[in-house]
UniProtKB/TrEMBL annotation:
Co-factor requirement: Zn(2+)
Transmembrane regions: none
Cofactor, how bound (note): Binds 1 zinc ion per subunit.
Zinc listed as a keyword: yes
Entry keyword annotation includes tRNA processing: no
Origin superkingdom: Bacteria
GO annotation terms (biological process): methionine biosynthetic process; methylation; S-methylmethionine cycle
Residues binding Zn(2+), per UniProt: 220, 283-284
Keywords linked to the UniProt accession: Metal-binding, Methyltransferase, Transferase, Zinc
Protein known as: Homocysteine S-methyltransferase
Domain (Hcy-binding): residue spans on this chain: 1-298
Entry's Gene Ontology molecular function annotations: S-adenosylmethionine-homocysteine S-methyltransferase activity; zinc ion binding
Length: 301
């Protein structure tokens, strides 16, 4: 199987959609602070089924259920460190199980170990604000153990995603580079700034000289923000761009519900590709049907 980096040099590659909405559609309650990570312990087969649904829909890359998984987060639920490490490894093995079960048209399939921001572990919307008041060394202490365990589990790469500010991005890119595993770096943005208010051109530039970073871009953001952000990422790094925005609806952290109308549409991918996007998919509220439409659009000259 070719590396994902090699595949990107040949054309766009489709990522999956939102894991949480696929699990909720199957009847699972994700209302507690562990979110999708809870099912790594309580119903791992459901996670494998969700990954398989996206492979079947046409995705070539699925992201593991480790976004919200962390040693401190699981510890707050009485889960000891040893079991947490096993659950992190399981997040990768479940994606591998789905890949092994896939029986559709032959194509390369990759597994990206999802690495969410520190704010995700707080389950209070902090990942959309950043600036947690933590030092770089404290952020390293939080992130390093789970990155080490995920790397040992053997994914094809890290998906360092939904990062709200440059300070945390620098820490995560540095850690992933030390572990020498390929990664993409994806910010959550507001217009042409990170959620913490830093200019995106500067935010992307920190990855320009890091060989382990194979793509930079945006996710968990409004679809209309993708073209400008993608162009900035391509100009700042010279690397392929990753883009997988939300449906267009807005998460109300206080009410813990989505509001507004969906604006994500498979046809929009053409403007993303024109701006430099090569890894393309959906995030929250984009399901297998949307990914199937995107895959069909990409396949059409």
């Amino acid at each position: 199987m070719p590396s994902l980096e090699t595949a990107l040099s040949r054309g766009p590659v489709v990522i999956d959609g939102g894991l949480s909405n696929q699990l909720e559609a199957a009847g699972h309650d994700l209302s507690d602070e562990l979110w999708t990570a809870r099912l790594l312990r309580d119903d791992p087969e459901a996670v494998a089924d969700a990954h398989l649904a996206y492979f079947t829909a046409g995705a070539s890359v699925v992201l593991t259920a480790s976004y919200q998984a962390s040693f401190p987060g699981f510890a707050r639920h009485g889960i000891p460190a040893g079991e947490t490490a096993n659950l992190l490894r399981r997040s990768v093995s479940l994606a591998r199980t789905a890949r092994d079960r896939y029986a559709g048209p032959e194509r390369p399939l990759w597994i990206a170990a999802s690495v969410g921001p520190y704010g995700a572990s707080l389950a209070d919307g902090s990942e959309y604000r950043g600036r947690y008041g933590l030092s770089a060394s404290r952020l390293r202490e939080f992130h390093r153990p789970r990155l080490e365990v995920l790397a040992e589990a053997g994914p094809d790469l890290f998906a360092v995603e939904t990062i709200p500010d440059v300070e945390e991005a620098e820490v995560l890119v540095g850690l992933a580079a030390e572990l020498d595993l390929p990664l993409w770096l994806s910010y959550t943005v507001a217009g042409t700034s990170t959620r913490a208010g830093q200019p995106l051109g500067e935010a992307f530039a920190l990855a320009a000289g890091v060989p382990q970073v194979i793509a930079t871009g945006v996710n968990c953001s409004a679809p209309e923000d993708v073209p400008a952000a993608a162009a900035l990422a391509a100009a700042a790094t010279g690397k392929p761009v990753v883009a997988y925005p939300n449906s267009g609806e807005v998460w109300d952290a206080a009410a813990r519900r989505w509001t507004g109308r969906a604006s994500w549409a498979p046809a929009e991918v053409r403007s993303w590709v024109a701006a430099g996007a090569r890894l393309i998919g959906g995030c929250c509220r984009v399901g297998p049907a949307g990914i199937a439409g995107l895959a069909a659009t990409v396949a059409t000259p």
